[in-house]
Structure formats: C-alpha cells, structure tokens
Amino acid sequence: MTVKLYIVSFLLLVSCSKNEHNKNQNTAHLKYFGFAITDCGANYLNHVDDFVNLVDMCTTDLTSLKNRVETNTLNNNKVIIHLQGLFINPVVDSGSPTGIRYELLSNYAELFNTWKTNNTFISSEKVAAFTVADEPAWNNMNMADLATITKFIKQAFPNIPIMVIEAPDVIDNLEITDDIGWIGFDRYATLDPLNDPEYLNRLKLVKSKRTNSNQRLVLIMESQWLDYYSDEGFKESVLIQMANSYYELAKKENDVIALISYLLPSGFDTPDQKGFLDLNAEVQETIKAIGKQIVN
After folding, report:
1. Residue 133 contacts residue 88 (beta carbons within 8 Å)
2. CB of 247 within 8 A of CB of 18?
3. What are residue 182's DSSP bridge partners?
C-alpha cells in the first residue's frame, strides 16, 4: 500500500458520552484485527500474537506455505495470503498515478495451478481471505483483468473471500464483481475518520461499489509515522486519537469485518517510515488494547 498524505487539521470531536454509547454497540460483525506486512520477508508475529487474529502474509514462490500457515495460525489466528505475484506483472507506465501499470501475466493459470497443487491444505479454516492486487485502479489496472483473476481464484477456492483495497482518489474507477468478498480503501494521515467528511464520502462510495449483500468492508487504519507528519507540526501521540477514531468507526459500521493497521515493520516504503514496532509505548498500548477488544 503506497503512502498518501491527507493531513487533516481539525481537532477530534468525539465526546465522552458518545464513546460511552459506542461501548454498548453490538460489535459481533467486527471479527478480525491484524497488521499489514506481518509475514512478508520476515515474520513479526511473535511481537503481536497476543492481540491479533489476522496475519498478513506474502507468497514468495510456488512452493508450499503449509509450515508458515501452521505457524501463523497456532493461536487460532487466520491468515490473509497475497497472490499478486502469481497474476500481475508491474510495468512502467508514465500515465499511471504510480508510474506503474498492473498487467495480467500470460502464464497466470500455469503459475496459480502449480501453486494450488503445492498448497492443497488451504481452506477457510485457516485462510480468512486472499488478496490479489493492491490498489488496482491506482496502478492503472484493466478492470477486466481484475475480474478474470478473481473469478479464476474463486473457482478454485469458493469458500475463501477475495479482498481488494483501493486508493482513495480512484474509487470511482474500481469495478467490483460478485467474486470479491472484502472491499476497502486506504487514506493515510486522516486524523479522525469517524467524523471526517472526505473520508466518510469515500467510505460511502466504496459501499456503493458492492454488488451483493454478502460483501464485507475492511477498514485500513494507520500505525506508521513519517518525517512528513512531524514536519507538518504533528506529534506521534496523534496516532492515539486516530486509532480510537478508526475503532469507533469500525464498531459503528455493521458491515466492517476487519480492521487492518498499516503497518508493522519500519522502513518498508521509505527509510524514514516508522512502523508499529518502533512507535512510542503509549501509541503501541492504545493499538494493542483495540486489538485485544476485537480478538477477545
């Protein structure tokens, strides 16, 4: 997920009485909490295993993921598995917002079928969702290719949802089919998503993209810190208010199934990026408490 900056310079307006009201909400719909980039190159699960139940993991080749999945699900967790590398070739495209265009690999069927043969153990018992294209419209992906990929995977694993997360400014261009089960967007540096009109308008737009009543929403909250934020005059402690606002919104929205925080390790996107593991203790404890409430 590419970092995009949307600093909002207004104070949080969530009153104590409103927080007390939200404590009494039915939150059975909110089933999962986890971090992006938990097991992608290195496995950081041991740092957070006591307050997550969703583990984000990446495929690196066509071999079996059984040992990694078994390790990641020892504590009754489930995993999200990234399959993008089996389907997509990122090519340079100066007309794309990112400078990259996602193209469908010509041999995707061969790659995926080999991977599937090596991973016959996979089921919805351990896998919460697959993800196949990070911010597809933002990366100028042909929506017909996205539909081809999701249909192909859904035929192989009909009981496992496919998740698509889009960038906030191109949601209009995103096309969702019935084969996509989880949908969301990322809009970083939003201080108070619960009350931010721009964020809520994008959430409304994402909802309108759904094609059936079984499709669920995913909220992407923020557990990163960039030098840019400090340069704009913000202190890292603002992430406490931000995290609580995301949590309140996730409880309020009955179709939200998962709250995923971006991200766990530092330096993944840029050298100055601090992930959850390097945030100050007060911020960490706030996010940890949210995770425990969801998981427990």
Report:
1. yes
2. no
3. 163, 216
The answer to whether 240 and 15 are in contact (CB under 8 A) is no
Instruction: Check: pTM over 0.90? Answer yes or no.
Output: yes
Pick the CATH number of 16-295 from 3.40.630.10, 3.90.1480.10, 3.20.20.80, 3.40.50.300: 3.20.20.80
Residue 263 preceded by cis peptide, ω within 30: yes
Q: Decide the pairing of beta strands 182-185 and 100-104.
A: unpaired
Burial (CB count within 10 angstroms: exposed 0-12, middle 13-18, buried 19+), residue 28: exposed
Mean of pLDDT values over 19-24: 49
Alpha carbons within 13 A on the beta-carbon side of 2: 16
Least confident of 8-12, 30-34, 69-73, 196-200: 8-12
Q: Residue 103 pairs with which residues in a beta bridge?
A: 89
Q: Give the residue from 270, 256, 255, 264 showing the smallest Cα distance to 284.
A: 264
User: How is the chain split into domains, by residue range?
Assistant: 16-295
